[in-house]
Amino acid sequence: MTTLVFGHKSPDTDSTGSPILWAWYLNEVQGTAAEAVLLGEPNTEAAFLLSKWDLPKPRIISDVDAGQACVIVDTNNPAELPANVNNADIQAIIDHHKLVGGLETKGPIDITVRPLACTATIMLDLMGDDAAKMPDWAKATALTCILSDTLEFRSPTTTPHDRAVAEKLAADLGISIPDYAAEMFAAKSDVSAFSDAELLRMDSKEYEVAGTKFRVSVLETTSPAIVLDRTASLMNSMKTVATEDGVDQVLLFVVDILKEEATLLVPNDLVKTLAEKSFGATVTGDAVVLPGIMSRKKQIIPSLTL
After folding, report:
1. Which helix (H) or strand (E) holds 46?
2. C-alpha span between 232 and 224 (Å, rounded)
3. Most exposed residue of 45, 143, 283, 284, measured as fewest CB within 10 angstroms of its CB?
C-alpha cells in the first residue's frame, strides 16, 4: 500500500512542501512507496513554490480510507485533518506545534515534535546524511518552507538552527535569500482574485477560548492595504463563514511582514473585548494595530483570552 503524506487543511507552504519532501525521502531513500497529497487548495505562496520549481500539484483528498497508511506532517490536531483519520493507519507524525490530543493510532508510531520554526527543518535533521542526496528541487522546497514559516527570519518562532539550515540550502542552490524571499512574499500578497470567504479560510486554524470557538485566520503580506481595503466586506463575510464552519467568530489578523506588525479586524464587541484583554490594545474603530505580533503559533494563540 502506498503511504499518503499530508499536512493540515488550508495548506500553506509548509503543509504543501513538507509532504512533497517527505514523500521523496520515503520513496527514494527508504524504498517505501509514498505519495504527497493535500487537504485543500494550496495558498498563493505554496502555488508559487510548485510553479517556480516545476513541481506537479499533489492531488487533493477530502478523507482517508480505514486502514490507509499515512504520515502526518505540520500538525497533530484532529480538527485540521481528515474526519476518518483515526481509522487510518498513522505511521508517523512530524510536527513543530504543541500537542493537542485526540489522535489515535493502531500501534506505537514514530513521533517527532521539535521546537523549531518549520517542519522542513525537522525533516532534514531526520534525514541526516541522506539529506545530501536531495535534488535541487527538493532543497528548494525545503528552503521555501523555512523562509515562509520564519517570514525570512523575522518571525519570533525562528531559531538559529532554522536559519543555519536555510542559509546552507540557499548556498547550495546559489540563491540570494532576500531576493528569493521577496518573490515568495509577492506571491503570498497577491490575493486580489480570492473571495472574502476564501481569504478568511486561506490560512486558518480553529481554537477555543473560554468555551467560545474561533477560526483564527492570518494573512501574511507585504501589501496589507490590498486586504485592509476590503475590511467592511470581510467583516460582513465573517458571519457567514462562522456559521458554515461551526464556530462562534472568525478572527482575521493581517500581518505586515515588512513593518512586523499585525492588524486585527474588529467587527463587534466580542472581538473588541478579546483584543483588549489579549493584547492590551485600545480599540477605537473597526481595526487595531498590534506592533510586533507576527506569529499565530507563538504570539497570537497563546495570548487569546476573554
Report:
1. helix 44-52
2. 15
3. 284
- Give the amino acid at 85: V
Residue 231: left if φ>0, alpha if ψ -120 to 50, beta else—which one?
A: alpha
Residues of the chain with pLDDT under 70: none
Helix axis angle, 44-52 to 177-189, nearest 10°: 130
Q: Do 19 and 40 meet the contact criterion of CB atoms below 8 Å apart?
A: no
Closest C-alpha among 204, 15, 165 to residue 96: 15
What pLDDT, on a 0 to 100 scale, did the predictor assign at position 202?
Answer: 87
Task: Return the ∠ at Cα 214 (arms to 162 and 269), rounded to 5°.
Answer: 120
111 within 8 A of 78, measured Cβ to Cβ: no
C-alpha cell at 258: 515588512
Is the CB of residue 59 less than 8 Å from the CB of residue 38?
yes
For residue 196, the model assigns a pLDDT of: 95
Distance CA 122, CA 201 (A): 27
Side-chain half-sphere exposure of 217, counting CA atoms within 13 A: 25
For residues 48 and 183, the answer to whether their CB atoms sit within 8 Å is yes
DSSP 298: I
Write down the pTM of the prediction.
0.91
Residue 123's nearest CA partner among 13, 42, 28, 19 is 19
pLDDT of residue 175: 97
CA-nearest of 27, 38, 130 to 75 is: 38
- Write down the pLDDT at residue 184: 96
Distance from chain centroid for Cα 94: 14
